[in-house]
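# nightly structure sweep
# worker-07 picked up a monomer target from the shared queue
# config: single-sequence mode, recycle default, output format = structure tokens
# input follows
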Amino acid sequence: MMTAPVTIVGAGLGGLTLARVLHVHGIPATVYEAEPSAEARTQGGQLDIHENNGQPALEAAGLTEEFRAIIHVGGAASRVLDQHGKVLLDEPDDGDGGRPEVLRGDLRRILLDSLPAGTVQWGRKLTGVRSLGGTRHELTFADDSTVTTELLVGADGAWSKVRPLLSDAQPWYSGYTFVETYLHDADERHPATAEAVGAGAMYALAPGKGICAHREAGGILHTYVELHRPADWVAAIDFTDAAAAKARVAAEFDGWAPELTALITEAGSAPVPRMIHALPDAHRWDRVPGVTLIGDAAHLMPPSGEGANLAMFDGAELGKAIAANPGDLEAALATHEAAMFARSAAEAADAHEILEACLGDRAPFSLIDFFTGG
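# output follows
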């Protein structure tokens, strides 16, 4: 029995994994994405892909070999420093493959390359969606075009346009802002900083603030400066003035080791604030015929290394559920949601715990305990 084509909003990792798993099972899907092309913007930094969710999702997508080819070998090392640059914990990459690192852009590329031409419709910005009764929904795009579908999946992230069909929940500001910076040619131009970061991830932490950096291929150090600050603190900084913004953020780390603060002050591009928003931890909704959500659209939570993994796992599990219930899509959606609600509530609780370990009153020792099981 042929399943009706699935309409997916959002060409992030979750939406693309869903489209690919459906394709593997012979089910057509179309992905509508607001961005004009796959190259429209950089795709963020490194992700560690976990053996309990991200890796099984890629296996369900038939992409394990392609995934192995893009792993950043050695990138799973991690170290914790104090504000003076003293190394408190140093865990090399043991190469066990439990959480290998890949670039988000590479991961997205192997997913895109695995889909039939035309699956992703670029430059289609969703402006509204309404129920037509039963399982049918009508999508309206910024170019005034419309699409009608029997099965709609919102994979459109934190500010999902599909979510209001299911839930009144709105993302709220968590009180944390991560300021993103990049250092290029670090080994040549900033050797002390490159040495402090090491081979993988570096966490220099204190209560309420931290400087966390990741080594990426080609001598790039990608940093998130983590701050527990009210929204008006962020609003008061003019991030269009790169020099002033760097100085203002660096001022929060007065007295810290210069090889650490260089990740802010010497950054090659303007710092970008990422205000961390979240949905309620146990966000769920009653079954609405013909529509569901995956990834951040369903369960936005603070960064804990799980967001991309969960989105891909959601997409793979939903794809498998649709394939397993070709004659009863409502049963497929109900199965998917029940499992996702339980999974995401547990992960959201963990995410808050990790944020507390990184920036709470006992930082950095709380993170060391987290890493070592102390």
